[in-house]
Design brief:
alpha/beta, 5-stranded mixed sheet, 41% helix, Nucleotidyltransferase, domain 5, elongated, 548 residues
Amino acid sequence: MAISGIPFFPPTRAVIMMMDEGVCVHKVSGGSAVYLDSVPWRTSDFEVKLTSVLNEAKVTSVLILNDAVEQHYRKERIVIPTSFDKANIIKRRLNVAFPSYPMRAAVELKEQTSGGSGKKDNKEIDKSKPYLFAAAPSTETFSRLIRSISQTDYNLFGYGLLPIESAGMLRILAQKLAQKRKAPAKAEWTILVGQHRGGGLRQIVVRNSELALTRVTPVEEPRQGHSDAWAKDVSRELQATLSYLSRFGYSPDDGLNIIIIGSKEYADVLDGMISVPSNFESLSPFEAAKLLGLKLHFADGDHFSDGLHAAWSGRKLTLELPLSSKEIADIAGPRKIASVAMVLLTCALGGALYQASLEAQGLYQDSRNLEISNAQLAEIERLYQEEIKRKSALGIDVNAITSSLDIDHRIQRQHIDILGLLKTVSEELNNLRIDSFEFKNEGDVLWSSPSKTDIPPVRNATLELSFSYAGNVNPQDGNKEMDDLVSRLNVKLKDMGYLAKVSVPLQNLTFSGAIDREVGLTANLRALSDRYTSKILIQKVEHVKSPG
């Protein structure tokens, strides 16, 4: 199944408010919430309709916020001996606390420093920590919701309870309003009251930013010109909530903030109906969103506060208390794995593109440098030719000088001592005479030694010596003289890296199957005038470091 987009950066989500009468869908992107549509549970094609709404939203993930009446909470203190036992102990306690509810979770609370019941005198209690247990039922309506999400390509970001996820929002609002009043925010208790679209009146009570109490009660939507009726209903429900707070340790000395979210036309009327000492504030959803750094986009009025909760929770990277179940795991698990794989592939692709861009920049810079170098070379060549013309006019042949130097450099690079080689040959000739010699150096290997101790490469350098004998000389004697000369030369040439050998003997003395011989005076005269030729080849075979 294809996953639409990357679900983490930035979080663009469809937030589904799960209420008793149906669901309400908002699109949240970067803290900006847009109301999309509401789908009642009694709709005959509920799953088709909700799937259509989600597909049109074009988001990357879906968040479910439970805003229904049936939510169960319990605060308990748990003794956890070691961190290794924490998960198992909490799981067992949750099973005992909510055996009939498969979707459950727990979150650790902070110790309350005031308004408590007294000092702890039990050592076991001293080691315990307060936890908030939460659970929700797995109903048929929830299954219909999950089936609708499974028909889309979106990730299921999570399933949370609206009061818990919005508890932190109350603390920020209370601080912002205290700053606005230019008064210290000393109140421990804060009550947020707002009516949700298609739902009831949601009241959330927090103590020091931790959930203490929440209620959902049916209240009719306000009508134009009947603000008193809605205010009376809300005042009555709020008074009932205040009566509950004494059970949770509330004292008037603790301080109380009451924040009403709704249309100013209806919310302001409540100020004169509340008799308890409190910091009363009435805000429209847009005013509250501005204080929280959020944006709301509604087309049908500004009274309902569900969009505020959707915008607050929709931009989170993690939920405060995510609930899980088999249905959630079946749809969320594989899609999260696919999303992680997509992120890794995207990062790999980004790295490859970045490396390719660096290579392209390097090639472009090299091409630019090459163009500049070619231009400089052309200018240098032009100046050089002009200088040659000027020297030629003065009678100096620069080309002849450079050619001579080049020949000398080539000989120097090849480390061939021609004069030294010929001197060695002359010292070993004795009574022999060379008719001619030919020096060859095949190949021109460019080589410069980085140090005096490096050995230059071997070149195919040869020196061929030619000797001649009279026709009446015995060829065997002549060949012996050649062999002796080769022996003497090799003794001296070995250290120089040369090897001598007879390349052409006086004549071929091997048996050829027939002998044609002349005798008499005529044969003797012809033998004196004839010449036998023998050649010795001296060849460079290796470099041997000279002694010393």
